[in-house]
Amino acid sequence: GIESGGSYYASMIANKLNIPLVLYRKNDKKYAEKGNFVGVIPVKRDKVVIIDDVIVSGGSVEPAINSLRSLGCQIYVNAIFSYGHEDYLKKRLSINVNSVTNINIFLNVAFNEKILSEKDFNFLKDFISQQRKKFV
User: How many CA atoms lie within 13 A of 29 on its CB side?
Assistant: First the structure.
């Protein structure tokens, strides 16, 4: 789980599946032997699923990916919500990113349910497209 939003989801999943949990902190604790990690530290060849709540540019998961790669782990990244930049993230982080849902699905549902007007829908789609250009 990525501090702090992903920690809740990762804790629940680990509990339900009865598997070890490790949380990744943004800042390491100098006095702790495990640095950025809290919980069961993965070892070489362990399969590790990184869970985060929201993923945009990959900035919050990148340090965890790098740390786990240095340990020799197989890494998978899952998010609850993404801004739809999975192709960019795959290229930048050399890893597949999966999400439960993304901004495009969210906007399409909101438009189809008439929560968003066509004007607002188009504005938001254009805004997201412009944001995407900053990443690519």
Answer: 9
